[in-house]
Fold these 3 entries.
Entry 1:
Amino acid sequence: MQAWFCETLDGPDALNWKEAPTPEPGKGEVRVAIKAASLNFPDLLIVQGKYQMKPPLPFVPGAEFAGVVEAVGEGVKHLAVGTAVAGFAGTGGFGTHTIAPAAVLMPLPPAFSFEDGAAFLCTYGTTYHGLIDRAQLKAGETVLVLGAAGGVGTAAIQIAKAAGAKVIAAASTDEKCALCKTLGADDTINYSTQNLRDELKTLTGGKGPDVVYDPVGGDFTEAAFRSIAWRGRYLVVGFANGQIPSLPLNLTLLKGASVMGVFWGEFAKREPQNNAASLMQLAAWYMEGKIKPLIEHKLPMSQIKEAFTLMGSRQVRGKLVLTNQG
């Protein structure tokens, strides 16, 4: 096998493409021949040593991938050699092969492409867990999506619409706002040129959004929370802005509102049956055409450093997928 190895925490430029022995799966594991892998913001953090999960060096980054089962370890019953799968294993995706626990792999229906499979689990799993499981989103409620043109943001627009909600998509440019409209957003806010609180007041008739989906953090967090509806739910998904914000806790009292953490990876480990049910619903929505990953960039695996540059400069709308040729 070959893979991009992270041997120091000096960022993407320090990654090295190397040959390594093709590993054999252990108990409960499978070996996957990787066809495609997607780049997520945590992949950038993990090679800089800034993510909450810190695997021992050296390791192969790449949390999310899709491919074909090539070998099966002892005790694996639901997967067989030749099965197409999508996986979210935390690491291992940026190579030709990886070993993954069978429990983190989802069999792909025949109509599910490897590129879509590689771009599916993290963003849609995270978003379903946040909106449906944590926030208990109901049809007719209003969702504000911050960073709406990004990977989880585009997934949030689609899932909220599939659940029957109204979606207000907030993004940093008119072009990104227009993209969100094509994905189903009812209204958009360009928070670079418009006042977020004023626009939310107008668009919701003064009520505010019932749910705020925030993968960005930074300067807009407090403004969005101050605009939230009574009994609103604020979903803390991530900090793509780089700044972890602080909130005056009196706002939760005044709004009767909840602040909810969304950590899908840990949810999947702790509640595998609930996660499996969520993924079944997501797969059904995909087959019905209600959700589909927005993939703006497809690059060969050899161009991983260019991919990281795009991710780090906030130039990725939706998802970026790396493919192995052949």
Entry 2:
Amino acid sequence: MYLHSFLLDKQNMASIITMLAHLQIPLEHLIEATNNFHDDNIIRHSRFGPSYKGQLMRSGKLINIVARRLDCKHGLGDFEFLTEVSLLSDLKHTNLVTIVGFCEEKEEKIIVTTYEANGSLSNHLSNPNLTWKQRLRICLGVARALSYLHYDEGRGYGVINRIISSDTILLDENWEAKLSCFEYSIKQFHKDQVCICEPIGVTGYMESAIEKTGGLTHRSDIYSFGVVLSEIFSGRKAYIENEANRFLAPWAKYHFEMYNTEDIILPGLQDQMSHSSLMRYSRVVCHCLNEETTFHPDIDYVIATLEGALEIS
């Protein structure tokens, strides 16, 4: 029986744990791998808890790992934990983070994934050494991950990630994008199915329609991706507290629509791109940030346009 045939509720959580037994890692092994979760090994903090780097012996080989220690005090429980573990064990794509295992022991809930050497995209938005071509390749990696999540024909369901942000996009040693964090994801069994749920998202990345109605489709991820595209272009975060234009999305969309990108682009970046590449990129951002969810572009259109932007960059 496939993992996706389960609905994650209290009646079958035990069954899922049994199916995933091969991925269980003893807590003592993770304590050793992270030097007892030493603060020096923390590589990032997020709303879901701290992540620790470490080295773990698996199949006779020492590998670099990240142990994400979920903070259950902030509302993360069995449902979210098992959602992420089951999805990561079922989903396989070059632009998704790879699961190593998990630990559920002594009130600990830890998800272990492969270590991505360059950390989260959020740490590199304003990096002057990250070129326009590298930024486009990162955009394409995320877009291809979304295409796989939303439409892959090899599964009987799609996945709405719900919390796409520059913090949940990791970068490996080759600056290849790896989408992570699936604890709030929803399985979508019919294309364009509207899922009514509690609005959950990251400030600055969630479209207003979700907050108003709670109605969610795969196109909601497209809006969040449009915000990430704006971050990559401007070098600034989606939300900056106590700033006049603290929400990036509407500010960026206005400038893209007015063809006035000089005021928002990261200094030095425009010298690296052709005008045609800029125009294609601008078109994608405007479509993704459309206020009407039904007008958000299909991800295949996004991929094709970004590929074109890269070819003529």
Entry 3:
Amino acid sequence: MEKLWTRLWSGCERTRRYSDGMTVVHTAVYVAEQPVETGLDPVAACRRARDGGGFAWIALVDADDELVGRTASDLGLHPIASRESLRSHQRSLFERYGDDVFVVLQPARYDDAAETVRCDEIDVLVSPGLIMTVTRSDRIDLADVRERVEAHPELARHGTTAVLWVLFERVISGYRAVLDGVENDIDEIEDQLFGDDPGVPRRIFDLQREVIDLAHATTPLPDVLTRLGAASEADEDAAGVWEDARGRAQYVADRVQSMRHTLDNALTIHATLVNQRLDEKMADLTVVQVRQNEQVKKISSWAAIGFAPTFVASLYGMNFRYMPELDQPWGYPMALGLMVLLSAGLYGIFRRNDWL
């Protein structure tokens, strides 16, 4: 093992790159509240920190599972915690394995153009005198976390809790920018609801999915921070810090849940508006159909009235030889009277039935 780390760690720089040039392994040793500049490998750094009564921070960035598992094993971390760090998680998490603690954080960023929430993952394994962070994305920059710890020695005196607290603070602060972006898009959706934009329901569905992903990352945070505070009861300052962080995490979780309700209501309102428009169109169509029926009635009525004289005239147009009224002087007036009588009778019937 010493030969392996000798190949991976050469010189005195604190950051090392190896293999394909992507993986970064960073070690920092803090003794007496001050960072100690060393080029030690993780095992030696951990030994040095514990011998000096300080702590070591081992950061694996974009590391493969083999390196993560090997490093955790060499550092003597709990095997279950080591296995947990090898799989991806969809929620923030806190687990205790003996003296070791395993924490999962889900930092998020919002792509406003695509309206998508992109969550990354930070796995944190904490052991007495040691904290190891595992990130598999180069989008997560731990430099500001390291600078914050090193710029405030009063933080470093809390040991591994200092690094863990700054990580939580950075992640929770990052959620606010994400929430602002999502809320802005929700406001736009509310403005679109009363328009005829056919893309509104799809936009609501897509944003709902992103908010649900964000809820997976934020909803467990208050409980995680409560458990961390309970684990730090011996340190009153640390317990107070965790309680403050828990309050801010609860605020974030409440905002996310409020967004979910808003989007659910928006979808309900949109469905109601669509149904209302359909009802209005059906009502208009019904009015048109009623008007058409009235016109058909009138046309049919006048057609029947006009057919009565035509029927009588057609009978007399058959040229039968033996028709008794043909030779009578009252035959022609009788035929005309019959036409008028039939037409007047039909007109009265249709008028009484409101067809005319």
